[in-house]
């Protein structure tokens, strides 16, 4: 009898869930929004959740199909959560810039009481985000970047040893690993003030925990899933995005560094020092950009947890993006040897006029390198940028209302591979970024750093940012690009590179990810010039 009751209960419950999902899956169709057919119970992301498809590429497919049907937008279901995908170029501008006050946040957001290391600029919301952004923006001025430039160059000191060893031992270089170790050295040094020496010793504690930040398992799929589908449940269950051992490690490092510098009265040219200097600075922030928040928001100096969180996000946000850019660029120039040769000639010629030293000004003079880096970020960007609708939004020239709480996926990969903007999009062609060609494209067709007030903080802004009543002109080279270029100049000045047959061509991306992560490494052979 009990068994029969149980079976009936399960049947009734399953029917209710199926009916609920079926009803949910009518959401976009009833609003006349194109959506690929969802399937029960995962909507459109079954293959993503089972590690078979990259989420950014799924969004790109929706962009392509909607664009082919001449539609201004499309949608998808992340399990049962409807997600909006803008396609039209003008609509993108509204969401990212003009009507930003409707889309100020991104998922997943974080409650800092039980996930302090994730209370970063990337995940904070509303006025808290605005206040912190205003506070941290001055850290990225040209002057500050010039100040830490030598630290970047020092991190390349061990690169030639790694190359010489591989030549001596006739072993190919695992470019993914080398880029990751070099980037860890740079970010460990500039964000945490630690000499990691990962290029010399790949098994340092910093590299081990740095790797853990990006390791994916079931937990790394389930927690972000809950955060997108039900932020309320995330709060109720006090789920933490950061892994506990990773949090402990980074908090310990920051505490020790701060104590050491305070007690020994020593300082360094790095972000950790700049963050420490912000400890006692009170700031009056005009948060009028965020509606329904109090107009003026007072932010106290940074606490230890806040310093740790920002150093951590500089590492987490800067690591994957910068190291993969270097990795993909090396892959492209071993496939296109004429481009490699032209790049090497530029590096050697410019360095000669700078006393054979890699200087800030020398890097800025390498214009062909700039084109190559841009073309790499076009072909291999962060494939999708998330936003969250924070206030109901009526899409211009349509009856559609994007409801508060709806996640928005900006289809960066789709745009960067759209033949209307980039003919023959799979071809690696740095000349797409000549002044003439750049001017031919509409705005918002190159989004490697995002756009609008939430654009990557390590970037140049076309607009000026108002901070504590002072206008700060952010200019010069972006930190992420700067470290990629410094690494590249060091690699190319004395070495040639060819593709090792171990590399799987064409490259394949891992499924189940939000970034373009490679399934297999890029293997290359180094030769002295
Ligand atoms: C080639 C290197 C890099 C690329 C391609 C890149 C790309 C991006 C992108 C696409 C976003 C999202 C922007 C948006 O939502 O509109 C972002 C945000 C961010 N990035 Fe970067 N990034 C790079 C390097 C760095 C570095 C080196 C740092 C730190 C030192 C950094 C810190 C951040 C932070 C803090 C945010 C969140 C900004 C906010 O919400 O206010 N990034 N980045």
Automatic annotation (TrEMBL):
This is Probable cytochrome P450 6a13 isoform X1. One of its GO terms (molecular function) is heme binding. The chain crosses the membrane at residues 6-23. GO terms for cellular component: endoplasmic reticulum membrane. InterPro entries: Cyt_P450 (IPR001128), Cyt_P450_CS (IPR017972), Cyt_P450_E_grp-I (IPR002401), Cyt_P450_sf (IPR036396), Insect_CytP450_Detox (IPR050476). It comes from Agrilus planipennis (Emerald ash borer). It comes from the Eukaryota. Pfam families: p450 (PF00067).
């Amino acid at each position: 009898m009990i068994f029969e009751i149980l079976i009936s209960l399960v049947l009734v419950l399953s029917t209710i869930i199926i009916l609920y999902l079926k009803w949910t899956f009518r959401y976009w169709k009833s609003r006349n929004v194109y959506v690929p057919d969802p399937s029960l119970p995962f909507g459109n992301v079954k293959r993503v959740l089972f590690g078979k498809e990259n989420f950014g590429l799924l969004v790109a497919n929706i962009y392509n199909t909607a664009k082919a049907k001449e539609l201004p937008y499309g949608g998808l279901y992340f399990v049962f959560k409807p997600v909006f995908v803008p396609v039209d170029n003008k609509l993108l501008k509204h969401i990212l810039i003009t009507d930003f006050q409707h889309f100020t946040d991104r998922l997943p957001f974080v409650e800092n009481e039980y996930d302090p290391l994730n209370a970063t600029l990337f995940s904070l919301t509303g006025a808290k985000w605005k206040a912190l952004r205003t506070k941290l923006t001055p850290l990225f001025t040209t002057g500050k970047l010039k100040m830490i430039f030598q630290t970047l160059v020092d991190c390349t000191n061990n690169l030639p040893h790694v190359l010489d060893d591989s030549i001596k031992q006739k072993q190919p270089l695992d470019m993914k690993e080398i880029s990751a170790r070099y980037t860890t050295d740079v970010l460990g040094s500039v964000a945490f003030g630690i000499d990691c020496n990962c290029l010399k010793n790949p098994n340092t504690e910093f590299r081990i925990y740095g790797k853990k930040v990006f390791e994916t398992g079931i937990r790394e799929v389930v927690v972000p899933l809950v955060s997108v589908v039900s932020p309320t449940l995330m709060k109720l269950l006090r789920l933490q995005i950061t892994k506990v051992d990773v949090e402990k490690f980074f908090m310990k490092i920051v505490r020790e560094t701060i104590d050491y510098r305070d007690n020994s009265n020593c300082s360094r040219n790095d972000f950790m020092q700049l963050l420490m200097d912000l400890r006692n600075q009170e700031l009056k922030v005009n948060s009028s950009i965020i509606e329904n928040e109090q107009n003026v928001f007072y932010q106290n100096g940074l606490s230890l947890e806040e310093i740790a969180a920002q150093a951590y996000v500089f590492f987490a946000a800067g690591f994957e993006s910068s190291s993969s850019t270097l990795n993909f660029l090396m892959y492209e120039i071993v496939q296109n040897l004429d481009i490699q040769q032209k790049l090497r000639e530029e590096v050697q010629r410019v360095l000669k006029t700078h006393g054979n030293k890699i200087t800030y000004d020398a890097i800025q003079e390498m214009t062909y390198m700039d084109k190559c880096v841009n073309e790499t970020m076009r072909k291999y960007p962060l494939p999708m940028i998330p936003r969250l609708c924070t206030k109901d939004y009526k899409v211009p020239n349509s009856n559609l209302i994007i409801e508060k709480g709806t996640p928005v996926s900006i289809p960066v990969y789709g745009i960067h591979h759209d033949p209307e903007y980039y003919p023959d999009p799979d071809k690696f062609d740095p000349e797409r970024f000549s002044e003439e060609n750049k001017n031919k494209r509409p705005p918002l067709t190159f989004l490697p750093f995002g756009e609008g007030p939430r654009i990557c903080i390590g970037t140049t802004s076309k607009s000026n940012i108002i901070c504590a009543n002072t206008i700060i002109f952010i200019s010069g080279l972006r930190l992420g690009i700067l470290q990629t270029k410094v690494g590249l100049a060091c690699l190319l000045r004395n070495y040639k590179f060819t593709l090792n047959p171990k590399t799987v061509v064409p490259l394949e991306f891992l499924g189940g990810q939000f970034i373009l992560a490679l399934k297999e490494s890029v293997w290359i052979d180094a030769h002295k010039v």
